[in-house]
Amino acid sequence: MSPAKPIPQPGLCGSRWREAMTREEQRVSSPRVVNIGDLRRLAQIRLPRAVFDYIDGGAEGEITLRENCRAFEEVTFRPRNAVAVQSTDLRTTVLGAKLSMPLVLAPVGFSRLIYPRGEVRAAEAAAKAQIGYVLTTISGSALEDVGRSSTGCLWYQLYLVGGREAAEAALERARAVGFRVLAITIDTGTFGFRERDIRNGAGALIGSSLRAKVRFLPRVLTHPLWLARFLRDGRMLVLPNVVVPGRGPLPLAETQASLAKSVVTWEDFDWIRKVWKGPIVVKGVLTAEDARRSLDHGAAGVIVSNHGGRQLDGVAATLRALGEVVKAVGGRAEVLLDGGIRRGGDIAKAICLGARAVLVGRAYAYGLGAAGTAGVGRAIEILRADLERALRLLGCSSIAELDRSYVDVPASWATEPRKSLS
Questions:
Q1: What residues form DSSP beta bridges with 153?
Q2: How would residue 398 be classed by pLDDT, with cut points 50, 70 and 90?
Q3: For FRET with 280, which of 1, 12, 305, 394 sits at 20 to 30 Å CA-CA?
């Protein structure tokens, strides 16, 4: 299916709109854009501070946010030199789906704040690259729009905002339009304390009170192109995939309060398993205990994730937690890693330490903020080229060959076995 055509924006005639789109696409394809950090800088220029910080920030002191990336620096490669690698094979299979590389685009809430029809744009780029895409419940685009725009591997990530009836209706819709895997997030016992968002008035900006927004308008007005697109795109006032019986779509302004009242517990899994017949993965696993519980409740996979450092600050970096989870799973399910991926070498390290594939959130969100579909595509291209180069320099011809022998892990990462909490 061909990508949706750009929507003309107020104050921009057709030719000026096309020029703006072309400039963005040229910017991300510039020789100066060589890594994810470059896309981050472009997104920071294009987006209002509140929107950029929503992507970029973490909880409290952002310790875990920084540690997610720093952990990859502590793991070093052990290459096989004097090896001529004629070609590299990045292909893999994740939960039965064939992917061109071990990469899945993670669920990013409120993507329509970042770019018009943001979830659709990201799904289009993922399908073109033949990788996976996960749509979050906290989405501004309807399941049907994403499903129609992508022929790729689609997952749906579930929160219980709106209650069980709303969730059941969403799962039925997801199944009907081709979503094949359900990801259940378990680390949102309450909303993380994201200090950047509070200082920037993000709550007021997505709320319903015009009066509360007034003092933040000067910041937004300095980004007229973003504002014009945001207004033309419908301002993302509701969550179209959370339809509350008797009320309709959940207002965006109620998201945070609703999340705090809708914690997913292990008791919910029996009900979810009855409603969803496809594969289930559990996202937010950081310990052996939760890994084993996930398998006990029918999970086909677990995602080692700390929500990108956006929930409980001070938990372990996901790469450090990976080994404990892989050992606990013991090959009975697939293990994926989410958090801190900024380079293809990071992907290789995660695979070496036992991950089947990785999820990236910020890495592609920066691209989305910089240039929509083209920006997401550029982020994927960068990671693909990085990963292929890493394999060649390791003297390894395929993802399937990567194992623990290709990396060294600091001795300080080794820990004594923990007594079970269950």
A1: 132
A2: very high
A3: 1
| Residue from 49, 293, 307, 378 carrying the catalytic annotation | 307
- For residue 388, with 0-12 CB atoms within 10 Å meaning exposed, 13-18 middle and 19 or more buried, which class applies? middle
Q: How far apart are CA 251 and CA 237, in angstroms?
A: 6
| Residue keyed to tokens 């015009």 | 210
Decide if 307 is catalytic. Answer: yes
Beta bridge partners of 301: 281, 334
Q: What is the mean pLDDT of residues 376-380?
A: 97
Domain holding 328, by residue range, is 38-402
Question: Residue 357 maps to which CATH number?
Answer: 3.20.20.70
**CA–CA separation, 170 vs 241, rounded Å?**
6
The pLDDT, as a whole number, for residue 322 is 98
Which residue is listed with tokens 């950047």?
196
Give the span between the Cα atoms of 222 and 52, in whole angstroms: 14
Residue 419 lies in a domain: no
Residue 9 located in a structural domain: no
> How many structural domains are present in the chain?
1
Classify residue 12: in a domain, yes or no.
Answer: no
Tell me the per-residue pLDDT of 145-174, one tens digit each, with 9 for 90 and over. Answer: 999 988 889 999 999 999 999 999 999 999
